[in-house]
Amino acid sequence: MEPVRLVIVEDDPMVMEVNSEFVSRISGYKIIGKAFNGSEAWKVINQTKPDLVLLDYFLPDMDGLSLLKDIRNSDLPVDVIFVTANRDPGHIQQILRFGAVDYIFKPFRFERIRTALDQYRFMRKKFREQQIEQRDMDVITGIRVHDSTQTGGNDLPKGLNDRTLQQILSFLAEQTEPMSAEDVAAGTGLARVTARRYLEYLQKKGHIQLEVQYGSIGRPVNRYKK
Hints:
The protein is of the alpha/beta class. It has helices at 13-24, 38-48, 64-73, 89-97, 110-127, 134-141, 148-151, 162-174, 181-188, 192-204; strands at residues 4-9, 29-35, 52-55, 79-84, 102-105, 179-180, 209-213, 221-225. Its main location: cytoplasm.
């Protein structure tokens, strides 16, 4: 799968540097443009035709919502994730109505943007398939359906959380080959023992499949796939 082509729009040079560094640490993404104001962003977006834009709300010459509206009115096939300090509920509601796929508050941790970008890659992959199942849509929209007939209860086991669960599911959905716990740990930034706990839980509930691979020597290796 080709890397997601991404443009970052941010007026603060220091924040731009941090955002760029974070994105560079996430596999599957390529930064193809940067802009420090709205008019420059509009030019870069039209020239480069990115897949995704990381967009600040507060820009020197316009707000991010206005730029998002311009993108939608021009029918450009570009997705947008807001990365901003703006917490105004009215603005956020409008932004979501105009199709932003995520909204990240500043300041944020690396784990938050990595989860967002992992989720975005999963969404792109599913939209390229011929058919999407309900469970795929639930991952895309972040909906967790409690079904006691399938999960054995309404709560995750102690020590597990839903965000990490979805992160692992998204990671596995991107892979073409079964992954070991060590592979998943390396790909998600989790500790190996943590990755193994989540994988065992997901396999037990039937959300992923287990393949046991036997080598010529040594112990068999458990590998998992979505």
